């Protein structure tokens, strides 16, 4: 067991973990932050996406001990300070970017990472960026629309094909 | 997953020492190693993280071309190599997905030598030099077959040095589920001749297509390889494509890479 300290959503947290404890388990079981979903646990689906030191990572494919000292942001840290949905989260609701919602935390974290690097992405850039996040409900069109809307672009002309 | 002791040294010397212990395995970005550990295909006693070593990270222009620290993530190469070696930056920007590119490293990819990984084609196609804690290895001597390299037990790749070609391009035919190359071709034109390296095709991993190199060295145009073909007999055959299909892709993608490089 090793003592691991990191910053999660702005707060410093310390827990005893095994070497094999994944960052996803550290967040969900250690900190009760169950908004980070584990879909496949094989690095394929992206549902467990969080930000580590400002970069999106699959938390099921990072060891908690390796993230020691890091700055982690999860879906629980995405809402506005007053508890209302962030612009990106609100866009997912407004544009029906989710159905069952299982992939949504990962989609929001991946999209937020994109918008930080590229505040006005094209539709093709959004699709390319979300390649590591799998959704089995929406067919992606409304997710892409939500991300474009959150970037302040007019999505009136984007039709689901 | 079986538990292990985790160490994260901050110098190459400490990492080499840690790796000399019984059952020690090096961890870089972990984007291949962690999934294989979950399946118990790899069960280290000690895991030595190489991503806390400052001297093994970064992209810089050096005397012999572009020098990339072995623990540099793909996303950093994609962002920083473009001004010096655009084809290499472009290759890095297409590996896996954004989360994989945040963590996965060039040294990790080369040490693993997956037969369908992108980086081996750039390293072999550029005639790069692989620098380890002990020596320098020419790309032509490094790749020894599927998941097999010239690295000795406990040897660590510290840096990769790429000569910068006059023209180059990488064209990857995506395998959209795994995001590896179904087949990928890296073409690089130097004053001394053209190099063509192909990944995702041969059962022996990345290889150079000598006949195409000769033809393209004489005339760097897609038509130059029109009369050439590769046999699919020794190529990877799986549910995504037969050996014959991959052999066909080798030629099509080589032409596309030449066109993209021109």
Automatic annotation (TrEMBL), chain A:
PROSITE patterns tied to this protein: 2FE2S_FER_2 (PS51085)
GO molecular-function terms, A-Z: 2 iron, 2 sulfur cluster binding; metal ion binding; oxidoreductase activity
UniProt keyword annotations, A-Z: 2Fe-2S, Iron, Iron-sulfur, Metal-binding, Oxidoreductase
Domain named 2Fe-2S ferredoxin-type: residues: 2-78
Pfam family, one: Fer2_2
Organism domain of life: Bacteria
SUPFAM superfamilies: 2Fe-2S ferredoxin-like (SSF54292), CO dehydrogenase ISP C-domain like (SSF47741)
The protein's name in its UniProt record: Carbon monoxide dehydrogenase
Organism: Gemmobacter lanyuensis
From TrEMBL, chain B:
UniProt KW keywords: FAD, Flavoprotein, Oxidoreductase
Domain FAD-binding PCMH-type: 1-167
Pfam annotation, one family: FAD_binding_5
Gene Ontology molecular function terms on file: FAD binding; oxidoreductase activity
UniProt xrefs under SMART domains: CO_deh_flav_C
Gene3D superfamilies to which the protein is assigned, alphabetical: 3.30.465.10, CO dehydrogenase flavoprotein, C-terminal domain, Uridine Diphospho-n-acetylenolpyruvylglucosamine Reductase, domain 2
PROSITE patterns: FAD_PCMH (PS51387)
Keyword Endoplasmic reticulum: no
Signal sequence residues: none
Protein's UniProt keywords contain Ion transport: no
Protein name, entry field: Carbon monoxide dehydrogenase
Organism: Gemmobacter lanyuensis
